[in-house]
Amino acid sequence: MNNQELDRLLEKQREFFKTSTTLDIDFRIKQLKLLKSLIKTNEDKFIKALKEDLGKSEFEAYTTEIGFVYDSISNMIKKLPKWSKAQKVHATFTQFGSKAYIYKEPYGSALIIGPFNYPFQLLIEPLVGAIAAGNCAVLKPSENAPSVSSLVNEIIGNNFPSNYISVIEGGLEETSILINSQFDYMFFTGSVQVGKIVMEAAGRNLVPVTLELGGKSPCIIDESANLKLAAKRVAWGKLMNAGQTCIAPDYLYVHKNVMENFVSLLKAAIVDFFGEDIQGNKDFGRIVNEKHAKRLADIIEQDQKKIIYGGEYNITEKYISPTIFSNVTYTDASMQDELFGPLIPIMEYESLGTIIDEINSHPKPLALYIFSESRNVIDNLVKRVSFGGGCINDTISHVATTSLPFGGVGNSGIGSYHGKYSFDTFSHSKSILEKPTWFEHGLVFPPYKKKLKMIRRLLK
Fold first, then answer.
1. Tens digit of pLDDT for each residue in 337-365?
2. Is 169 known to be catalytic?
3. Mean per-residue pLDDT, 249-259
4. Does some domain include residue 449?
5. Catalytic residue among 60, 246, 338, 391
6. Where are the strands (E) in 27-184, listed by range?
7. CATH number of the domain that 395 lies in?
8. Which is the catalytic residue, given 212, 219, 223, 391?
9. Domain range for residue 421?
10. Residue 453: per-residue pLDDT
11. Is 219 a catalytic residue?
């Protein structure tokens, strides 16, 4: 798609939006029901596409992508009539007799750019919010997940008019055209580097933007933790989707008093999950392409001396084994960037204050995980470290809680979504003050002589 074709598409979406069709709540609910029905009809195709693109097992494909979206749509349909109502708020005393409201209105045409790691969920979940809020939308699936991208294009294109919802496939050229166009809202999920480019482009056109990025998310294993359970929950969260999860525990801080025991339990948990022949286990996924597999293999080679488990890889098969590194420092290859793979660097710690200072000296992470039975340890970490969100005695699960906003802070992102937060993200909050005509105190009108004393009493 070139600039002229995109301009024509956006103009058609603006014309459709001006008809006010999307303002009707029943229309929005009908579209959400249609979307869910289409996903259900094509569920097997999506599972197959996710297998082709990322080697995802049927269980992972359903729970982390398809079922996740089903639950989100159902929740949105149920709550939308309430969330879309004008919200009455308190008017100040100085506005005596007035009524104050917040109206939620759609922006117009929203651009949604999805990533490759969860190519279905992280594209369709924002779309649910955009539809619920009454927007038109243009979807840009990841070119690195071609099977899912093609299927989304086919299903959306065959069932939604392009002047309402459209899909544009392609690579860097198409993405560049899209982000430099005059959308009314942009929603991007991806890397920090590309996020900066998206924000710069949006800034030139003064387009509001949500950025769902990533970073190196730490996981702290305190000496008071339930180590066996911690090992299982860390292995589960880290190795889901072969580690290609933006909120995966990127690296571990383990207290020196439990280091040996925890590492032993972590190895046991991995074997328990995937057996000795992990490459042959259908529950363990694959890296999205050879480029990313080679990137991870290079880290393995550079930090070879610190490997205490795993270290195997097969670039052509896009297989990277779960690999544990010990005695890691911030100068090691595994600690330079977000790993986005099944590599587990472990650092030993003794002082909680020291690791808080170390974490805070780096960009704010998207997630942080704490395994501890000590309220003092938990409270210190939650209060003193800035991060997008996280779990205590678990990993990943906060993202599946629709009552919690999901998003980053600082380098890990701007804005949040999920549940009502998705509806709010794709809605402009329009403030209205309705003043009565049966009364006027006249304090704000000239002449001001003798009125300042009264104003001082009211505004103090």
1. 999 999 999 999 999 999 999 999 999 99
2. no
3. 98
4. no
5. 246
6. 87-89, 99-106, 109-113, 136-140, 165-167
7. 3.40.309.10
8. 212
9. 3-213+413-432
10. 85
11. no
